[in-house]
Write a structure and sequence with these properties.
- It is built from 10 helices and 10 strands.
- With 333 residues, the protein is of the alpha/beta class.
- The protein has 2 domains: 130 residues, ATPase, nucleotide binding domain (Nucleotidyltransferase, domain 5, 2-Layer Sandwich), CATH 3.30.420.40; 170 residues, 2-Layer Sandwich (Nucleotidyltransferase, domain 5).
- The chain has a 5-stranded mixed sheet with strand order 3-2-1-4-5, sandwiched between helices. Strands 8-7-6-9-10 form a 5-stranded mixed sheet, sandwiched between helices.
- A hairpin with a 4-residue loop joins strand 1 and strand 2.
- Helix 4 crosses helix 5, helix 4 runs parallel beside helix 6 and helix 5 packs across helix 7.
- The two termini are 28 Å apart.
């Protein structure tokens, strides 16, 4: 029964988790708050904050798990993708820890970890399993045949859905991160108030850059006619934008589920915490008789427990890497 320490540092959250024989014993996260005043994550500030946080976060994870440091039998870390400075902090810590004690080192792809977050708690999907992963930097459809055998069958060709939420929020004068704010305001608005173009890419791919441009021109046009337009219609704008993004996502998810004859369906990634998306996904699932899965909120956003669950399966498969491995900001999987 292997005890594994897992590290997550792909963006602006420093995470550490302890997993034992597939059971997460602890999941500690230090969230950086300073980026909100800049309207986005500042990479240099993020990497410095990781350096300050990683030791106390790891110590807290070990203490919360009720184990001692010598009991750790392997170390896992986020190898890709992400901000290179942030990735370097986690990778250097993990490699140093592992090499100092001659422990196996496990490299984990961040997006694979988001998919595997579904296997941290019960109920767990069975295979084949189709997952829509939606985050600030990625939007993908992933078909999974086993915990370590999965392939991306569709993805955004430009901007991610989470980026569309955040950029829309910025256009509307909302604070960063804007996605959760739009979600809350949308609950008070009319999703049919304004019509925006839905993503209409071939196959299972997505595109959200055109939507962002359309929203910008729409706001500019309306403000010329009425400078107070955004303030007077904020809830309806948010509801209409959110509806458009969600419909674009679910349209491709339904197509893939039908084409691949899969009824075990999940959503993952930071945007899967969006209440509107969760509700619409579960509604579609009931209509189409899917078995639907959404990780607990703490496992939707960036966290080390999802790195740990992938590491558990990689440890069983003896899928280890050399201590000289380097992180990659854009590595595919």
């Amino acid at each position: 029964m292997a005890i594994i320490l897992a590290i997550e540092s792909s963006c602006d959250d420093t995470g550490a988790s302890i997993i034992k024989d597939g059971v997460v014993l602890s999941n500690v996260i230090a969230t950086q708050l300073d980026h909100s005043k800049y309207g986005g994550v500042i990479p240099e500030l993020a990497s410095r904050a990781h350096m300050d946080a990683i030791l106390p976060v790891v110590a807290a994870a070990i203490e919360k798990a009720g184990i001692t440091m010598p009991e750790i039998e392997a170390v896992a870390f986020t190898q890709a993708p992400g901000l290179i400075g942030s990735l370097m902090v986690g990778a250097c810590f993990a490699k140093s820890f592992a090499q100092a004690r001659s422990l196996p080192l496990i490299a984990v792809h961040h997006m694979q970890a988001h998919v595997m977050a579904h296997f941290i708690e019960d109920p767990k999907p069975s295979f084949p399993f189709l997952c829509l992963t939606v985050s600030g930097g990625h939007t993908q459809l992933v078909l999974c045949d086993s915990p370590l055998q999965m392939r991306v069958i569709g993805e955004t060709i430009d901007d991610a859905a989470g980026e569309a939420f955040d950029k829309t929020a910025k256009m509307l004068g909302l604070k960063y991160p804007g996605g959760p704010i739009i979600d809350n305001l949308a609950a008070k608005g009319n999703p049919q108030a304004f019509v925006f173009p839905k993503s209409n890419m071939p196959d299972y791919n997505f595109s959200f850059s055109g939507l962002k441009t359309n929203i910008l021109y729409f706001i500019q046009k309306q403000q010329k006619l009425n400078p107070a337009f955004v303030e007077e219609h904020l809830n309806d704008i948010c509801a209409s934008v959110q509806y458009t993004i969600i419909e674009s996502l679910l349209m491709k998810l339904k197509k893939a589920a039908t084409d691949f004859n899969v009824n075990q369906i999940g959503i993952a990634g930071g945007v899967s915490a969006n209440k509107g998306l969760r509700s619409a996904f579960e509604s579609v699932g009931k209509q189409l008789k899917w078995a639907t899965y959404i990780p607990s909120f703490e496992y939707c956003t960036d966290n080390a427990a999802m790195i740990a669950i992938v590491a558990h399966y990689k440890f069983e498969a003896k899928d280890f890497v050399d201590y000289n491995i380097v992180p990659s900001p854009r590595a595919t999987w």
